[in-house]
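Q: My collaborator sent me two sequences in one message, no labels, and asked for predicted structures for both. Can we handle them in order? The first one she listed is below.
A: Yes, handling them in the order given. First sequence, followed by its structure tokens:
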Amino acid sequence: MTPHIVHGVDSIAARHGGPTRAIRDLVEALARAGARVTLLTGDAADAPDLLRPDPALVTTLARPGWRGLAGAFAARLPAGIDLVHDHGLWKPWNLAADTAAGRAGVPLVVSPHGMLAPWALAWRRQRKALAWGLYQRRLLAGAAALLATAPAEAADIAARLPGARIAVLPNGVALPDAVPSLGERACHVLFLGRLHPVKNLPGLLAAWALVAPRFPQWRLRLVGPEEAGHRALLISEAARLGIGASVDIAEAIADSEKARAFAGASLFVLPSFTENFGVVAAEALAAGLPVIASTGTPWAALPAAGAGWHVAPDPESLAAALAEAMALTPATRAAMGARGAALAAREFGWTPIADRLLALYRWLLAGQPADARPEALHG
């Protein structure tokens, strides 16, 4: 059976960060695994900065113009599809996906991408409460399955929707052909991602102010697209804390430049208040970097794997982890990086992830037989 799966997402613009890249890589991997895949996006067909999948693998259809809540999705829905997989919450686009799947009489799978985490729900709370009551709860309750990227996200989903069918599959990463040794790299700590309040970057700057005087040869580099004027806030905060000379706050970089950014660092830090997965942490591991991740991220396995730290997102805890990591010898950090690269290769290759997701799709399409429970199902 070669199922025709339609993936829908409000936008595939690069500025939306890791989830956009993960969706692009996922649909390509599903096509390689044997599915026919169409990607529908709410972006205008001529929008700039779009991360389009390989056209030899995936058909990408962007909207020709706004056509109402369901029109932007349903008007582009191909005939003869088997399943709709929608990404994200809270947008009219998501309501359109639900409507289109219902009209086509096919199962709906939804990936919330961390948008049911407590911090995420508190961000613009009133708007989300309205959407929850109007359509979002109904959409999720009627889905054939909800897809989480980690057990912590599955718990967040279950708290809001008891009894929902939840599957857990991590995001994958593109694994490098070879992992460069850390060696005698520059003393740089790297953050790569959106400059957004959820990333807790003011907290990271406060942590850096606690450790920077003890490590004058080290620099902190924040790289990514900004949202809501957050870059100016960070620059102002670094100046206020007196650490502007040791902090670089750079513009977003192209995907082709990410390998160079990782290669120029000795440590990676992800201090977020919440992450459903944190693709960039997996990318940093794959590039051979030790990772400091907050307990708001699902990277609790880092210490046991000898590949990094998992600490509370307050400045004191982040500072303690930074100080410990920066005090290590380059050889010790290199050994940690090698263990992290092995972890990424073992757990986050796209091929096995796509195979497991395709098995879930086929199980749903076969009527959910009790004797063929997919590996991805949670609980």
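Q: And the one she listed second?
A: Here it is, processed independently of the first:
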Amino acid sequence: MFNALTLLDVPMAPYPFTTLEPNRGVGAVRVPCPHVEKGVPCTPGNAKCVEGVRWVPVNLIDVPGLVPGAHEGKGLGHKFLDDLRAADGFIQVVDLSGSTDAEGRLAAPGSQDPADEVAWLENELVTWVSEILGRDFERQARSVELEGKKVEDFLAHRLTGLSVSPAALAAALRGSTLDRAHPSHWTADERRGLATALLRASKPRLVAANKCDRSTSEALTALTGAIGEIPAVPTAADAELTLRRAARAGLVNYRPGDASFSMNDPERLNPAQVKALESLRAILARWGGTGVQPALERLVFDRLHQIVVFPVEDETHWVDGRGRVLPDALLVPADTPARAVAYRVHTDLGEHFIRAIDGRTHRALAADQPVGANAVIRIVARK
């Protein structure tokens, strides 16, 4: 999955702990490029444009596999969990064909239930966060009560390092029945419930039901029904990796996320290669694609609620100071205020912000007004 999304070549093998240290790479998500509206070619900088589609980079980390009992130190244990601290969200890759056991060993097809893996990962993550919350909790909570401090500030301090935003913390508390005035009265079960809500708000998860090419739609239906609100996307990562490598070699015309491909020069291929590509064509026809690109995009756009913004220096011609058309594309959370976008472009623009101007409507946006998805905006700041 990681190699398919990044076109890197990290080790892949069907045995536990092939990955011992996190692998880092860059994938990309797709949005329409506004240059099509303008009728002029863009000059991509950080995000390439292919036939009117902008590929916006996303940082990815492939972490060593988790095993049941990781919170107790089993497998790579706490090291694995520490690798997850800075993540905004998770794609959990499970074996839809049921041929991999909980510790990553090969098993007879259909002998394992992928829903079990989703459940025990949930348990490991919730237990991990619960333990972080619970350390010396009652004593410190009584101190909060005596000093009249806000429980939100108390929790934010305890969760430092987990990348839990104030908004996610507020959402978790809002959905709970906890007595905020008396945190020292919270039971272990109540703290565990808060940990569950915090994870769902701050680190949304999506399941990649992998090896769908070796499984059935009935297995996908069973998995989806068992895991509840966590979305599951059928994926065939091996097929996606093969197609992306073939496209890079010029053997096929394939764009990640497409439901089909074409062979550029079939006469260059030997019979075995043609047969292999035709088997991949059958997978795409059956499932509507490999699902790998849609899985990443569903996490980024649907679960993490990110949007893309195009900052420019000229709201009429959509160019920067060097005359480049729409050079940059930034991923930001939906409802991000205009000033926060300015800070993303440059600290000075945020600190000296006056207003933003929408490149389509030419209307001014105040500092606290949110920008829209695929917005083209100019930041006006004091010199």
